[in-house]
């Protein structure tokens, strides 16, 4: 009688990691030719896509780095464009024509810098890369800027000061206009959004939204409230925004309860969509080319979770914890920025001590109609 061999237990995932689509963690360098900035200087605070698909990154830490990422054709490189003198955080990057404008913060306050956009070179070999000089435009504020948002032409940037004043910055010369105080008691969120009519939206005390209309020239407290758990409205503010320029809808995510909502701007109405994960904060969001909303939820004490809202289905789903298994295995715990790329890929800016640029390629839905002859 033969003895039966004991069957080895099979590995089975608990389903905690993202298994829908593909996530790639791209190092902040030219692999094999350069090294990323030092640990403690690579927390990605802002992302901006320029013409041609180049993605520009701003970092925070002991030094603030400006970087350009190119993943198309024969590129596949993240190039360091330079360190912003005296800055510890890049708050915003915009593009006007062939020029970049960089809003950076440090101990001495907020300054505006400019640099030419990166021109793609022949990148099969290491030569052909050059760094243009980053030049100072103006000293902007004596304090740090928070939650900035740029108009679509890149010529105007709105932001908040640390004491809650809304300001308007012209990138051409660095001139600043103070537009008013959001809340004299300091009860306001630090994230701003701009709708298709170029109205600026933000959150104040008691989960209430405010809006600034350049034509009217005043800050209006709308009495529109974002979703909050019972008894927690006084602690609630908008921690992330994403604009759908195709429909005119603004999406928002909240802290401390991690709810997602959509704002029908012309109607002045916020519609709660639900809580996608167990996490207590929505960190960043972006709208994909197909209208789906992708975002990351998770505060400092959480493990980040990727989520998706599909307006066609009305579904809001937790997709799991970010993990990249190609080349070196990487886990993503904290993120602070998100944008949609040229071909519909989604970029997420990791915000830890050692960081990567994460690229999410969502799945393409299968066709359900019968095959027909052409």
Question: Main traits of this protein?
Answer:
374 residues; mainly beta; Neuraminidase; Methylamine Dehydrogenase, Chain H; 2 domains; 4-stranded antiparallel beta sheet; 0% helix; globular
Describe what this molecule looks like in 3D.
The protein contains no helices and 30 strands. With 374 residues, it is mainly beta. It folds into two domains: 22-120 and 133-181, Tricorn protease N-terminal domain (Neuraminidase, 6 Propeller), CATH 2.120.10.60; 185-321, Methylamine Dehydrogenase, Chain H (7 Propeller), CATH 2.130.10. Strands 1-30-29-28 form a four-stranded antiparallel sheet, with no helix packed on it. The chain is globular, with a radius of gyration of 22 Å.
The CATH architecture category of the largest domain equals 6 Propeller
The gross shape turns out to be globular
User: Given this structure, which CATH class of the largest domain is correct?
Assistant: Mainly Beta
Mean pLDDT: 91
**SS-based class:** mainly beta
- Could you give me the name of the CATH homologous superfamily of the largest domain? Tricorn protease N-terminal domain
User: Could you estimate the helical fraction of the residues in percent?
Assistant: under 10%
Treating each run of at least 4 consecutive H or I residues as one helix, how many helices? 0
* Largest sheet entry: 4 strands, antiparallel
Query: How many angstroms does the end-to-end distance come to?
Result: 63 Å
Estimated share of beta-strand residues:
over 45%
Catalogue the unreliable spans: none
Task: Report the count of strand segments.
Answer: 30
